[in-house]
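User: Please fill in residues for this 115-position structure.
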């Protein structure tokens, strides 16, 4: 599995920590959302076995809640971003009503993170 870059990402965790993979994520200060791409082998394994294992490093601290999900948690409708700008479903800033109509229904571009 590899973390993916996605349009709503507003932070990258472990960016300058070579012992960890950089983790593109969206955060509002209370929660962090990241996306992961599975290899074909991993996809087949999950399909056949129906199990996904999660290892979370706690470094001796209390376990924090996790919520794995298959569907994107990001809205398909425009949202107001942290910087008070109106953004469409791909995270693109909307500057006019015409632009709002053109971005509604766009798909979020997701690319695997380069190693």
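Assistant: Residues filled in for all 115 positions:
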């Amino acid at each position: 599995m590899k973390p993916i870059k996605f349009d709503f990402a507003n932070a990258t965790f472990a960016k300058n920590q070579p012992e960890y993979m950089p983790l593109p994520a969206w955060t509002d200060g209370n929660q962090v959302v990241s996306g992961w791409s599975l290899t074909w082998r991993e996809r087949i394994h999950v399909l056949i076995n129906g199990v996904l294992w999660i290892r979370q490093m706690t470094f001796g601290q209390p376990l924090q809640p996790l919520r794995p999900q298959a569907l994107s948690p990001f809205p398909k409708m425009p949202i107001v971003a942290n910087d008070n700008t109106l953004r469409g479903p791909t995270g693109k800033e909307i500057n006019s009503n015409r632009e709002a109509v053109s971005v509604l229904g766009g798909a979020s571009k997701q690319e695997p993170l380069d190693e």
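For context: The CA atoms of residues 86 and 96 lie 10 Å apart.
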